User: What shape does this take?
Amino acid sequence: QVQFVESGGGLVQPGGSLRLSCAASGFTFSAYGMSWYRQAPGKAREQVASIGSSSAGTYYADSVKGRFTISRDNAKNTVYLQMNSLKPEDTAVYYCKASRIEYWGQGTQVTVSS
Assistant: This one.
């Protein structure tokens, strides 16, 4: 069955960096676009970034453009999110998702605080 295992979250000071990873299984990873979403307490889940199946084409929400970079390794069935210059408003649970597959993993908590 489809599975996403997100990792790499944690507590970081403002201005710091984190690299999130999402290991996917149960489907043909290389055939699907992948996205990162986040959900802050009391807020709706929002799409942060996405990448095409062969890494052709990326999308970033305005709030993270220039600070976050999405990438993927199809040989490892893994998608990454490099997050730099983190701000307190980036605090959320981060999830990965495959396009056209309605399934969510457990997510990984990112907390940006001094």
Summary: Residues 68 and 83 are 4 Å apart (CA to CA).
